[in-house]
Amino acid sequence: MNFSRKARIGHSGTVLALDISTEGVLSSVGEDGRCLLWTPEGQIIQDLNVNKEHGSSPDDCPLNSVTFNPSESNNFYISSGTQVLAYDMRKCSSCIVNFDFNVDEINQLCVNDTGQYLAACDDHGEIKVIDIQESRLFKTLARHHDNICSSVQFRHKKSWQLLSAGLDCHIINWDFSSGKPQQLFNINDCVMKNSEENQTLFINPPFVHSLSVRKDGKTFATGLGNGEIGFFKFQGKKFECTNKFKAHNSEVSQVYFFSPDTTACFLVSAGNDGKINIWKETQTEQKMNYELCQELVHCSKINWIACSSFKTNSIFVADQSSIVHVYEQQ
């Protein structure tokens, strides 16, 4: 695969998070307290000064996460501190509703496939599940993460299952209808036990920085603080680690399942080593494997990635700069 690199310039501070709508619109948020919406061609169609609207300075409330509603592509959600702000792309002059349920800074937002529920995980180790349609707090998932909850994802094709992971090295599968965990998994239970690995783990523990769930809902991947990617597969309501390998020379900050067509599935990983790796899924008789098919040297620590096959296969990258970089397949 050959990629060309382009830059989208518009932010005045570090870009922290990205998401892409089903219509190919890119949203980017950052330390400048702004959210930019971009056309598939790269033009800015909205520039929202979110913190100014709510009387906050960017230093107080950087925008850590943004996500579109998969069932209603005009609606998107931004996290600012402990708040979740809901917007309609057709009338962005002010937010539709402000949800203020989290007790600590929010790290990631996600919306389930039906567009009814939004999850927000925070530094307190809690996940707030919000009923978007009724504008109310639906459930608080708490008391099981001992540290920062860094990532949260709904499980595709499973109405009431949600995955969370954090800097306590735990992955939890929740039944968010009852608010109870169905499985608690310590990533340390599947790390290699030789002395060299243990020394590496002491310096870089396998904190879970990122989760990505495959579209079939049966498999998910994790980006770990020791430079590894972990792969997990569900058997019923329980999952197990099926594969794990060294992928980067430092922390894996992002993993993202990407299926540009119905025949191929890729995993894109990004790390603090400034590299973006593209892994192709291969099936053997024993298990699913992933082979490295492309390495992009980005040369900067990466905060967020998002992938899209709208018009062209593209990887969008937020790093330590104010620029959104786009790698387009030629």
Structure characterization notes:
The longest helix is centred in the middle third of the chain and has 9 residues, at 195-203. The strands form seven sheets. This protein has a four-stranded antiparallel beta sheet, with no helix packed on it. It has a four-stranded antiparallel beta sheet with strand order 2-3-4-5. Helix content is 4%, strand content 55%. The protein has 330 residues and is mostly beta strands. It has helices at 50-53, 195-203; strands at residues 3-9, 15-20, 26-30, 34-38, 44-49, 63-69, 72-80, 83-88, 97-99, 106-111, 117-122, 127-131, 136-141, 149-154, 161-166, 170-175, 180-186, 208-213, 219-224, 228-235, 238-246, 252-258, 266-271, 275-283, 288-297, 302-308, 314-319, 323-329. The relative contact order is 0.13.
Query: Number of DSSP strands?
Result: 28
**What is the typical, i.e. mean, pLDDT?**
92
Radius of gyration equals 19 Å
The parts where pLDDT drops under 50 for at least 5 residues are none
Share of helix among residues? under 10%
| Alpha-beta classification | mainly beta
Element order: H for helix, E for strand: EEEEEHEEEEEEEEEEEEHEEEEEEEEEEE
The coarse overall form would be: globular
Main β-sheet, in a few words?
A: 4 strands, antiparallel
Question: Which range does the strand content fall in?
Answer: over 45%
Distance between the termini: 8 Å
Number of helices: 2
Strand arrangement across the biggest beta sheet: 1-28-27-26
What's the arrangement of secondary structure elements?
Elements lengths: L2 E7 L5 E6 L5 E5 L3 E5 L5 E6 H4 L9 E7 L2 E9 L2 E6 L8 E3 L6 E6 L5 E6 L4 E5 L4 E6 L7 E6 L6 E6 L3 E6 L4 E7 L8 H9 L4 E6 L5 E6 L3 E8 L2 E9 L5 E7 L7 E6 L3 E9 L4 E10 L4 E7 L5 E6 L3 E7 L1
Antiparallel strand pairs: 1-28, 2-3, 3-4, 4-5, 6-7, 7-8, 8-9, 10-11, 11-12, 12-13, 14-15, 15-16, 16-17, 18-19, 19-20, 20-21, 22-23, 23-24, 24-25, 26-27, 27-28
